[in-house]
Structures are given as structure tokens and as C-alpha cells.
Amino acid sequence: MLDLHSHVLPGVDDGPETMAESLDLLRAAQDEGITRLAATPHVRDDYPTAPGDMERLTRELNDAARAERLAVEVLPGGELDISFARSLDNDTLHRFGLGGNPRLLLVEFPYHGWPLALLDTVELLAGRGFRIVLAHPERSYEVQERPDRLLPLVETGVLVQLTAASVDGRLGRRSQRCARALLEAGSAHLLASDAHAPAVRAVGMTAAAEALDDPELARWLTHDVPAALVDDAPLPARPAPRRARGISARWRA
Questions:
Q1: Which residues contact 186 (CB under 8 A, 6 or more apart)?
Q2: End-to-end Cα spacing for the chain
Q3: Are 214 and 242 in contact (CB under 8 A)?
Q4: What is the pLDDT of residues 100-123, one digit of tens each?
Q5: Which of 188, 204, 10 is nearest to 109 (CA)?
């Protein structure tokens, strides 16, 4: 599995405070079968992470992981606030490219309120050569009330990342119902942990994949699509839905 949203770098945001804690998170990721994990520290007013700090800490964490014989590669990235994404120059945005893909950006969907500048920001960044992955919109009250509001964005090429803990219910029933609705509508493209620690806001990718009750879809969300994004390759076709035992049948029970 590939995990393209995590707060694994030490001392930059609300994730681990020390390198030892970061290594514990990597151990948890390895135990779940994750082989590549993107470090996506917050880039916003309260955590104005600089690209140089992200790059340096990513190198240091990879060195520490190799010393501990951990088989998880940490990739660069950032979780960009919408206003920050608009204000950064192209070189800085390239350095925050998700998973090391300089044309791909992870943009944080706020938990409260519909971001009025979202469509404008997507169009602005697309005009500058970037593609957007929206982080965890299923955790927004506005999206929970109307998941279909995301459809116009998806139709423009925006990709939607669901948090693993939403899919398996750890973040509550509203987030879970919204995640299910987006999956059923074909408006979700990848699953990621948004992990901040091994136990609190944990990785949980395996539990989420199993909750789908559809191995082909789980692989598409946790491996096929993330791998294509990192490699800047065309996205693979979404697997056909399972009619008898798939998401719709089991989740509506």
C-alpha cells in the first residue's frame, strides 16, 4: 500500500514531536504493509512549514528509518491550506508536490464552511500546471450534508482523498456515511491515513481497506491510484462495483 497523507515528520506540526515518535509511526505503517508514505506537514498560518524544512526532515527520517531497517520510504509533500496554495510561487509548490510529483498538490479541505475560493483556486492552480487532490472532504459538515457538491470539482479533474478512519467508522457515523456516498458516486479516488501518531489518529489503512468488503476497489484506492499519481502516470480504470457483496449492498444493510 501507498499512503499519500501523513503527518510523520517530527516537530513541524501537530504530528510527532521527536524522531523517535516518527519512527514509531513508520513501524506502525510497515506493520500494515505500507511501503511508501508521503510526509505531508501542514502548510498554513499556524504551521507555516517551509519547503526546505520538509525536505531536510524527510531526508533525515529516511536515514533514520534505514538505520532501523524499516522498509518504508518517506516521500516529500505538504498539506496546503487553500489560501497558502494560492499565494506560493510555482517553485515552492513544485517542492511541496505530493509524493514527489511536482505537478500534484494535496490541498486541505476545511472542516467547517464551504471554501468560497475553492473552485477559483483549482482553476488558478490548473492554469499554472498543477492537479489537485482534496484532503478529507468527507469530514466537512457541508460535504456531509450534500456530498454531490463535490461532483463539479471531480468533473474538472480534482481527485478526492478519503481518510481511512472515516471509511471504517473511527471518525464517527457522519464521516463514514459521507465517505460511503462519495465512494458509491465514484467521487473518491484514494485512501490515506492522515496519521499523526501510531495510536492516536493512527494509520488504520488495513482496517479501512477491509471495511470496503471489495478487495479490487481497496487495491485501487490504496495502491493503484496512489502509485500512478506518484509516478505521474495515467490513472487506472476504477474496478466495476461488486453488485452482490460490494459497498452498496453491505453498507445499506
A1: 238
A2: 29
A3: yes
A4: 999 999 999 999 889 888 999 999
A5: 188
Alpha helices (H) along the chain? 19-31, 51-67, 82-87, 90-95, 118-127, 141-145, 151-155, 164-167, 173-184, 205-211, 215-219, 225-230, 247-251
Unique residue bearing C-alpha cell 471489495: 214
Please check whether residue 205 is in contact with residue 193, taking contact to mean a CB–CB distance below 8 angstroms.
Answer: yes
Pick from 208, 143, 221, 150: which is nearest to 178 by CA?
Answer: 143
In which residue are the cell numbers 501542514 written?
42
Mean predicted lDDT score pLDDT of the chain: 93
Query: Which tens digit of pLDDT belongs to each residue from 200-217?
Result: 556 789 999 999 999 999
Question: Which single residue is written with the C-alpha cell 457522519?
Answer: 174
d(CA 112, CA 128): 27
* The predicted structure's pLDDT at residue 209: 94
With residue 74 as reference, give the H or E element that holds it.
strand 73-75
**DSSP assignments along 151-188, one per residue:** HHHHHTT-EEEEEHHHHTTTT-HHHHHHHHHHHHTT--
Query: Would you say 47 and 80 are in contact if contact means Cβ atoms under 8 Å apart?
Result: no
Tens digit of pLDDT for each residue in 17-73? 999 999 999 999 999 999 999 999 999 999 999 999 999 999 999 999 999 999 999
CATH topology of domain 2-251: TIM Barrel (3.20.20)
